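It would be a great kindness if you could assist me with a short task in structural biology. I am sending you one protein, given as its amino acid sequence and as whole-number tokens for its backbone shapes. I would ask you to consider whether the tokens describe a fold that such a sequence might reasonably adopt. The full record is reproduced below for your convenience.
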Amino acid sequence: MSGQIKKMIDSILQQRSKGSALIKSTTEAKIVMKGVNPSKYDINSPDDPDVIAKLKNIAQEFGVTV
């Protein structure tokens, strides 16, 4: 199922930012620093198990669920 990474990134950003553009951009930067570039993925991107594992760890660190 392609697009799972994009959905996970969007979920993390939405839960963390709660509508704040500043927190969203800060969270995007933190995700990039942890090794995943959100702008690189779209709904048609293939699902890479390594990236999915990284995002699950990031979500756990941020205290959100994916």
Q: What stands out?
A: The radius of gyration is 11 Å. The chain has three helices and no strands.
